[in-house]
């Protein structure tokens, strides 16, 4: 599972910091969180096909989070997409998409659903579960909590071989959790050849928000918290005025929630480097980092941070 | 006067070819023709401030020509623009802009006018004149003919000095076209110290269009024709089907209109290089070229092609 930070800028995009978009890639599928102007180009730069996107989650309707959507949909259509797509977002998202498609004469031939979300849960059985939590922003906005389903324990082929279990139906029954009897009459329990279930990662995407104690509760033990860090402590007053967070405030949420990693995004273009943000956050929560555009974070099944590539 | 080819791609933007946008820069001001997704980033890459844009001309409402507009307007607002701005485009442009601004909660504090154009002329006294010509496309679309006002003849200070005309009101009257009498009683006509008027450049922007004989008439003797060249001759049938032009068809218009230069843009992403387009066009009209994203064409007052920089 990989997290692609496609755009980490806030408000005004720049050459080095595109408007917000984060892609979660797993088993050949992509979940996209926010879709600022230029997201389709950032996907190309990352080598990700837009056709792999199955769901898009829009945190709120400020332009920098949503203006890449009509172009992305138009490109999907031109590339003759057939796979269905669902877009989730706050009330207004339907009107935004439908009006833009109509005014730009864009027709989508693929199955396409728009779901205006409320506080609550969206369930995708067998894949993942996404919960919507109202964020604290100046227009209706949501944070999203993504819980991936658990990953089955590792099947140890060498152990199975040693116990005289040939590949085929017997191994499959073990993987399905059943105790089996070998041709030699030996009873084998699944735990003898299969490792423990690996907990699915939890990724929390704050969207634009002032520090939200409810998010700290929902993000409990998350693998990764991707949090608004528009300002550094020197502009704490601005964070309060515009209902954003400072890097330190994001770190406080991360610390309270005991998450494993904190990614600081949506950094205002007024800051040339991310150094101050990282420094201020790490004083509170050491495992914090501010990704650059196109950075990739790999999360392995044991939920450990593996690599950050530029 | 400089022409910035900000985006030369057609349909689907790529890493190397942004969606259509062309900036005409003169005397510190910018006229923008089309505004595809990512135009604000291309402006930044070219070192052009969006605050210098005074007028925007949208050829038609296909997404690749217009989806950069809401983000550009939002950025102008965030940069606290005060200067007025006018946007011209086909019917629907008002609804497109107003709906996007409303749904993305964007408020513009600067003077801002939207003018839905018809076949006819828009006049800007003392600056330039833009004529709108209906294009031949599958939705309402326009070509734009930009005629810059003439530039006054060069004032030869050395000649004035030789004729005993001091700097000040007498020189000013000559520049205004009046014959004057020097302190020594000598009558001097303007033509004795001022060179001939330099004709203002004419730039023609076709937008998306099938070959249009009316455009060839309107583009007569233009300094630069920027023309749809979506396809090469091998896909002439596609050009016909989708109401676009081939590079050769663009060259035929350029040849008929006896323009000075032809720029081939809106090239389909199916072509990796522009070589075939340039070759096919030059067989008909030698002074043709296919600019890359961010190429700049400088037009000097004598309407000669000066430089193409990458």
Question: What does the largest sheet of chain A look like?
Answer: 8 strands, mixed
Oligomeric nature of the chains: homodimer
Provide the residue-averaged pLDDT of chain A: 93
Helix content of chain A: 10-25%
In angstroms, what separates the terminal alpha carbons of chain A?
A: 17 Å
The largest sheet of chain A has its strands arranged as: 6-5-4-3-2-1-16-17
**H and E string of chain A:** EEEHEHHEHEEEEHHEEEHEHHEHEEE
The largest interface is:
A-B, 36 and 36 residues
The number of domains of chain A: 2
What is the name of the CATH topology of the largest domain in chain A? Metallo-beta-lactamase, Chain A
Query: How does the overall form of chain A come out from the CA principal axes?
Result: globular
Give the total of beta strands of chain A.
17
Q: CATH homologous superfamily of the largest domain in chain A?
A: Ribonuclease Z/Hydroxyacylglutathione hydrolase-like
- Ranges of chain A where pLDDT stays below 50 over 5 or more residues in a row are 303-310
Rounded radius of gyration of chain A (Å): 22 Å
């Amino acid at each position: 599972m990989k997290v692609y930070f496609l755009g980490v800028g806030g408000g005004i995009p720049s050459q080095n910091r595109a408007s917000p978009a984060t892609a979660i890639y797993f088993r050949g599928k992509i979940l996209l969180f926010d879709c600022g102007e230029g997201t389709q180009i950032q996907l190309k730069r990352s080598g990700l096909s837009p056709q792999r996107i199955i769901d898009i989650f829009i945190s709120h309707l400020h332009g920098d989070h949503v203006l890449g959507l009509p172009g992305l949909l138009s490109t999907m259509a031109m590339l003759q997409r057939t796979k269905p797509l669902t877009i989730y977002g706050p009330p207004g998202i339907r009107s935004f998409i439908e009006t833009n498609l109509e005014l730009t004469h864009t027709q989508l031939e693929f199955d396409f659903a728009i779901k205006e979300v409320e506080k609550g849960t969206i369930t995708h059985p067998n894949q993942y579960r996404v919960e919507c939590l109202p964020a604290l922003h100046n227009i209706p906005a949501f944070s999203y909590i993504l819980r991936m389903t658990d990953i089955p324990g590792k099947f140890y082929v060498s152990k199975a071989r040693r116990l005289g279990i040939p590949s085929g139906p017997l191994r499959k029954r073990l993987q399905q959790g059943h105790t089996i009897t070998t041709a030699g009459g030996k009873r084998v329990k699944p735990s003898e050849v299969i490792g423990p279930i690996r907990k699915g990662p939890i990724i929390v995407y704050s969207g634009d928000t002032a520090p939200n104690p409810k998010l700290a509760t929902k993000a409990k033990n998350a693998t990764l918290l991707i949090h608004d860090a528009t300002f550094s402590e020197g502009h704490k007053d601005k964070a309060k005025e515009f209902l954003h967070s400072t890097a330190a405030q994001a770190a406080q949420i991360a610390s309270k929630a005991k998450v494993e990693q904190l990614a600081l995004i949506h950094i205002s273009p007024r800051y040339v480097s991310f150094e101050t943000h990282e420094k201020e956050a790490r004083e509170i929560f050491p495992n914090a980092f501010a990704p650059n555009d196109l950075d990739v974070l790999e999360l392995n099944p044991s939920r450990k941070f593996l690599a950050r590539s530029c």
